[in-house]
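Hey team,

Filing this mostly as a record. A colleague (T.K.) asked me to run one chain through the structure pipeline before their review meeting, and I want the input and output archived in the tracker in case anyone asks later how it was produced. No errors, nothing strange. Just documentation.

Input sequence:
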Amino acid sequence: MSLIIVESPTKARTFNRILKSKKWGGDYYVFATIGHFRDLPSEQISVDVDHKFAPNYEIMDKKKNMVAKLKELAKEHKKIILATDLDREGESISYHVAYILGHIKENWPEFTLKKRGLERIIFHEITPKALEEALANPQELRIDLVKAQQARRILDRVVGYKISPILWKKTGRQWLSAGRVQTVALRLIVEREKEIAKFPKEEYYQLFGNFEHVEKLHAKLVSFKGDPYEVNKTITLFDGEYTYSKTTIDKTQSDKIQSELNSDSFKITQVAEEVLNRYPPPPYTTSLLQQDAFHKLGYPSKLTMRLAQSLYEKGLITYHRTDSFNLSTRFVFDAMAFIKKKYGPEYALAKPRGYKTRSRNAQEAHEAIRPTRVDRTKPDKKLSTQEKKVYDLVYARALATQMKEAQVKQTKVQISSKKGYEFEAVFVQVLFDGFMKVLMPQYVEKNKKKIKFAKTQTIKLQNVDIEQKETRPPYRYNEATLIRTLEAKGIGRPSTYASIISLIVDKNYVEKEYRYFKSTPLGTAISDYLSSVFPNIFDLAFTANMEDSLDEIALGKKKLVPTLEDFYKPLKIILNAQKDDNLKLEIVEEQLDEKCPLDGGAVVVRFGKYGKFFACSNYPKCKYVKPNLRYVKGYQCPLDNGRLVVRYSKKGKRFYGCENYPKCKHVQWALNIPPKNSAKENMVTK
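Output structure:
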């Protein structure tokens, strides 16, 4: 028998379900490591920077029993088959399995691999056919991928363990940390907050005319005698450029224009119709799935990746950590046949559609995220509601890529007045829905009506709407836009986005206002300090170049140790210079509009190891503190009439408790009698 080693119990169950058939004859035993089990100990840096950055790996305490069991099983089986995920982390787990089973001799930075009795199989989906092909075509352990993973791990460990103590010294807070990529992500958010603060806010007005017509005709005032009212302005941001628009109309002008329009006459002077082809977007990569799940479902990236991992391990979708738009030949031709049968031949393509991968370092051998079976419109497995929603996103997006383009008629109507004012309205009619039938059914339903306008037709103005506006600064980042920017700048990789975002939130460097990130005073102070003292290390271009270097290590084009040395040499110079710098890092504290009940001092916002809280500004003389609670308006504790607050269990499940805990220990899992507005809308932080 052969021992197949995977990293997840769910993945092991899917393997066992496939391999238990008579075809396989019960020749395989599947064992799960449950993730990484050999790592750098956290008590110290565990990297010898003076001797080629040699890492000091140890077996995790909680995994020692698992390792013992694995060694016993290895003795009972003639062949070891490594079947971990196909990315660098998966390859690293396979490497450590091979090491503890005696198939690898470490002589850092090189490794000697004993190939006999050891195989590595690669697959993009967990299906009978994919597994059969993988087992029939075993490969060798991809050492270059392992080296790239180790290089990233060492880089991050060196930055974290060399720079974080400086933050502790500067602030007196030993729970703070600096990260090679997380600090750059934080810097994007901090710099955006500064750009919003200094953005020139200008008041302007827009006018809209409501005209009598068979169709509702709501048109925007765009020009006067050919001179446009709207102007565009562009400013330079930390991460690029931002263009915004405004009109030249002020309050006095808007009132004057409205008065003139009310006594004016109008007619349709131009009707421009254009039939446009609308093509489906590419299939999902990791970042695109995270962005869409955030926009459409409101899921944070960490949740999306957990759900996608589950769907992959259950055999429902292909591997979800990818930056490639490739789709397998089998899938595109299966999709073509399925589309013809379900929707009709007019919806199918004559030949498959492909997409050019935008990422400069995408591995073209990888596939985009897609369902493993095109006829599985609804998964027949027991999935959570959240898993079903993510599966539906993946399924619709992948199928749409192989459907005919939609045809849309765009009608631009120009209305001119006798005095020279010109209005414009744009209407859309879907002539053929094509891929929109699957991906955008609501859009099709909304825009299927046929609309006709006659040129030179006299038209009557019913009334004028005046809207007071203010120039809008660039938006704060949310999870989707931050991931998009990180990807565009070449910072981080698909498997790292979720952990990057989670870390800067957990460390209280940023907090969310609705769905947007806002840097805290703590995060701003840390970002400003690190970017000024380590200008190259936390520079966008430098970080992106380092990612490229890691990719080149993975491709065997670059050596591991020289790459680490090139990074560490300039860092070491700055670190030595900081040893004698005893200046403290000042963190501006945000004050609440209330006084301390003990000594009358100002109550300020502070951040500790366990998050945000409120305290007296006279600490340590006054030790008054108040927790940061999310109150639910309209709900009271049935025991003492205290307000209900949102809390979370150790497993992360939300529940509601009394604000007077621990005096009152009332808890409930649901809000049984909702007030007039929903509970979600009524949650507030105080």
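Quick notes for T.K.: The domain at 286-404 is CATH 1.10.290.10 (Topoisomerase I; domain 4). The chain has five domains: 2-141, 152-198+475-578, 203-278+411-470, 286-404, 591-685.
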